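Sample entry was shown:
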Amino acid sequence: MCSFSLKRLPWPCRAFILVLLLLPVIAVAGEPLRVVVISDMNGSYGSTRYEAPVDAAMARILELKPDLVISTGDMVAGQRRPHLSRKEIEAMWQAFHAHVSEPLAGAGIPFVVTPGNHDGSAYKGFALERAIYAEQWMPREPGVRFLDDAGNPYHYAFELGDVLFISLDATVVGHLPPSQMDWLHGVLDKYGQDYRRRVVFSHVPLWPFAQGRERDFIGDPDLQALLEAADVDLYLSGHHHAFYPGAMRGVAFVSQSCLGAGPRRLLGVKDRSPRSFTLIEISDDELNIAAIAAPQFESAIDWNTLPARIHSSVAKLKRADLSDAGVGRLRLE
């Protein structure tokens, strides 16, 4: 057997060989971080069936091989009265894992979640569903480095590459509890400036996007001010079932379309938002976004078909590419 040691070579030769060995690592490090966001995959109350767009989207996501997949909630179809039994709730989760969690795990793609009102509601009467949500996710290691996981799987913070990600527990309408606001302030104050980008995600959005959901939002000016002060780049949300890349005062707010039942119309728009998942590429200098639309999930929603602004009684969001939020359209190859 032959053996070889770099120590036997002159230093210039050793340095040259080390550079060659590190080139693949350097190339990978220079690539943008690719993140996919999926949302609102549930069907009718109690259903264990997932519509065809969910499976088609998952097949496409596996082809894209992103660095991370985020769910912004409503993975199963709970929050029903009369209340679902433990057996019914667990059957829904078993179906979800078969369609979504297990394919991602098998491909080695990290998958992180935040609770929605249909899978981890904090509304009174749904304590069992909320407890089972935690039971489902606590044992599932997402493959990321947590910075603060005391509230996992509801609210928590982690890093991936040079990006700080924060999940908020927002399953009810109205302001976040003071304890969670204090926690968020502490996380951003402690870790925020250590990262090139900061991304926050929750189920219920901070501001409204869709018709029929005009009252379903957090609506806290103090939260908006905190995001601005901490230089948060991106706030991702679900619940409104319509894609829109909006921005206000330097923060980009991206509402996800649904993959499951009930696509909705954006405020001031007559057509329903196509089912889609969101693809985000984050690099040192750019943050670009596309919504990849059903049924084939091969083409992106044209931002020119989206309104330049969305007006509600509480906020005015400008389309991100027309704003100063530093977010652009992702061009698909």
Remarks:
- The radius of gyration is 21 Å.
